[in-house]
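Query structure, 644 tokens:
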């Protein structure tokens, strides 16, 4: 250790009395070596508690410092710390890869900045690479008394008799400079990916992608029955950008290097010294592959809404949504829904303003005396959002045989009518945060909204042709191709298409949950219209006639229950899509929309009670919701209970 300390101080031109910053844990060799350098060479040690901001408490920059890349990066984010960092005379950086963006920033530093190469056996670094100034290079220069060579596997061999008597054969694949004195590291031998007969160095793939990707990532490998091992990329992100990253990889990498698997993860695993934890990353990737493979899809089904639920999701309105002009009114409506749900089951609330939203809800719950259980059932999740229609951006969940499959279909704002990028990323974040548990299944290659389908829980799924065949969804797929996709992905035995009915003012192109709803005992509730002068009459009459022709899987007629059509409601000159079909079934209750039309509200309640005789029927005034062209069911998404 003393010999290593003297060699380093000599190489860097450090003298007795120079200051040295100790900002690494003494549990690690980096911390121990800084102490040894101070004792051996007479440096004045400045000890700071190890943290991501080692310069925060300093008034004067030290002469010499050793940091990991994360500490350097963090220091550059603060103006005062950045000035201190630039004033360090000799800065060495080790313990992890230095990405291209960070290295580019360091090139402008006025004093010497170095990347280190070393290993446990040599106690500290045995070579340095200048990152800035005229001496900047991609090649490492060994310290005094150190020589290097390559073995038959192209691994670096180190002779450093002053610090280690034995010759060291490393696992680092390296390349020697033509003068055979300098070297550069290509990657670790154990990070070679043998894929389809090609040897691919994970670190080399990372170096190619570093200038292109703006998120933390790591390249690892997974077992593959065809290739032997498959290149796999894990990345950190709060949104699903897998498709974008795949495009970048295809445009940047040679064909054999392109990752066969790309996964978004909550964090990239790191060691205690902030190096990539590659063994852990490989295990993580293999587990993600296994989760995909182990899902027994043939045992899964899409439960009916009236089956037992784990929770209901609401995505809360805020000032940056289209609700801004009526934010107070819509917030009260959401509180009405939240209170009724939380009294009976868990409630997940997604919002970009978690503290304020929690205060609003809890205060309202206490004022209404809904009970502490409702507050305990509340879970607030901090996620940015475009809008609030949880029915359409939420998970579509399959259950069966002890499994839960969380199907994440693409939500594109009802065929591209509205911005939806943030809402389309909500599911992945809920899963990454552990809020909704199950096997995540990425179906972002297919547009499907929860409001566009209804399930009887027994293999029949209802939908509308006007919605699923509308422009901007899944064209140029044909109806037959869409049906086969629905059957395969929802594990449905049959798809029943409703060909008529589309409410005026409906942005969804005719979601089935505004028109026809499924209930127990082969019952269908549907919206009727008696006013022949109503522009919607003809379509709804045709829908009613079609419903009479439908048969159950056993060949019997469905029991049809006719819901009234609310009298027209306008916002200015615009007719709003009010409907009593947009109710929500929860544990022990049905929440249904009311529109301040007492006679029709009561008639709808009686009809719904006929379909759900064992449920409490609870009205929620939804006049505020329909201003944005939805209603109660559109705002919610249930998460069914996992089946044993």
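Result returned for the query:
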């Amino acid at each position: 250790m003393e010999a290593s300390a003297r060699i380093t101080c000599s190489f860097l031109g450090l003298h007795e009395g120079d200051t040295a910053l100790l900002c690494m844990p003494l549990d690690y060799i980096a911390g121990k070596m800084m102490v040894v350098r101070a004792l051996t060479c007479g440096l004045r040690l400045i000890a700071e508690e190890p943290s991501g901001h080692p310069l925060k408490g300093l008034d004067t920059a030290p002469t010499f410092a050793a940091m990991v890349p994360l500490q350097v990066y963090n220091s550059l984010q603060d103006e005062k710390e950045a000035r201190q960092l630039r004033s360090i005379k000799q800065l060495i950086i080790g313990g992890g890869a230095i990405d291209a963006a960070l290295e580019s920033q360091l090139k402008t530093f006025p004093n010497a900045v170095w990347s280190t190469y070393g290993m446990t056996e040599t106690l500290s670094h045995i070579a340095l690479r200048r990152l800035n100034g005229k001496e900047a290079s991609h090649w490492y220069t060994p310290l005094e008394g150190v020589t290097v060579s390559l073995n038959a596997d192209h691994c670096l061999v180190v002779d450093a008799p002053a610090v280690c008597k034995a010759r060291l054969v490393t696992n680092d694949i390296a390349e020697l400079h033509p003068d055979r004195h300098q070297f550069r590291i290509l990657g670790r031998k154990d990070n070679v990916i043998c894929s389809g007969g090609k040897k691919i160095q994970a670190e080399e793939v990372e170096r190619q992608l570093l200038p292109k990707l703006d998120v933390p990532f790591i390249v690892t490998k997974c077992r593959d029955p065809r290739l032997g091992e498959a290149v796999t990329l894990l990345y950190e992100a709060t949104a699903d950008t897998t498709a974008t990253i795949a495009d970048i990889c295809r445009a940047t990498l040679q064909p054999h290097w392109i990752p066969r698997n790309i996964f978004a993860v909550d964090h990239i695993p790191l060691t205690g010294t902030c190096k990539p934890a590659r063994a852990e990353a490989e295990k993580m990737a293999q587990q993600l592959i296994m989760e995909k493979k182990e899902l027994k899809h043939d045992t899964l089904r899409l439960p009916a809404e009236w089956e037992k639920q784990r929770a209901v999701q609401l995505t809360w309105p805020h000032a940056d949504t289209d609700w801004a002009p009526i934010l107070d009114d819509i917030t009260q409506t959401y509180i009405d829904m939240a209170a009724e749900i939380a009294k009976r089951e868990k409630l997940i609330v997604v919002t970009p303003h978690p503290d304020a939203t929690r205060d609003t809800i809890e205060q309202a719950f206490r004022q209404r005396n809904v009970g502490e259980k409702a507050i305990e059932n509340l879970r607030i999740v901090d996620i940015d959002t475009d809008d609030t229609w949880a029915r359409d951006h939420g998970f579509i969940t399959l259950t069966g045989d002890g499994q839960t499959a969380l199907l994440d279909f693409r939500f594109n704002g009802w065929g591209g009518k509205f911005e939806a990028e943030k809402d389309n990323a909500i599911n992945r974040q809920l899963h990454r945060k552990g809020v909704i548990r199950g096997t995540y299944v990425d179906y972002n290659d297919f547009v499907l909204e929860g409001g566009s389908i209804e399930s009887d829980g027994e293999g029949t799924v209802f939908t509308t042709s006007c919605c699923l065949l509308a422009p901007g969804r899944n064209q140029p797929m044909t109806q037959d191709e869409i049906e086969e996709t629905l059957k395969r992905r929802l594990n449905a035995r049959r798809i029943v298409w409703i060909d008529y009915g589309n409410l005026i003012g409906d942005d969804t192109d005719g979601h089935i949950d505004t028109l026809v709803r499924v209930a127990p005992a082969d019952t269908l509730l549907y919206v009727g219209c008696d006013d022949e002068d109503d522009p919607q009459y003809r379509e709804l009459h045709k829908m009613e006639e079609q419903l009479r022709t439908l048969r159950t899987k056993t060949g019997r007629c469905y029991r049809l229950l006719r819901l009234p059509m609310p009298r027209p409601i306008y916002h200015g000159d615009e007719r709003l899509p009010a409907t009593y079909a947009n109710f929500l079934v929860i544990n022990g209750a049905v929440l249904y929309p009311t529109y301040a039309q007492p006679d029709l509200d009561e008639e709808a309640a009686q009809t719904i009670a006929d379909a759900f005789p064992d449920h409490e029927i609870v009205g929620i005034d939804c006049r505020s919701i329909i201003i944005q062209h939805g209603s109660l069911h559109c705002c919610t998404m249930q998460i069914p209970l996992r089946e044993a």
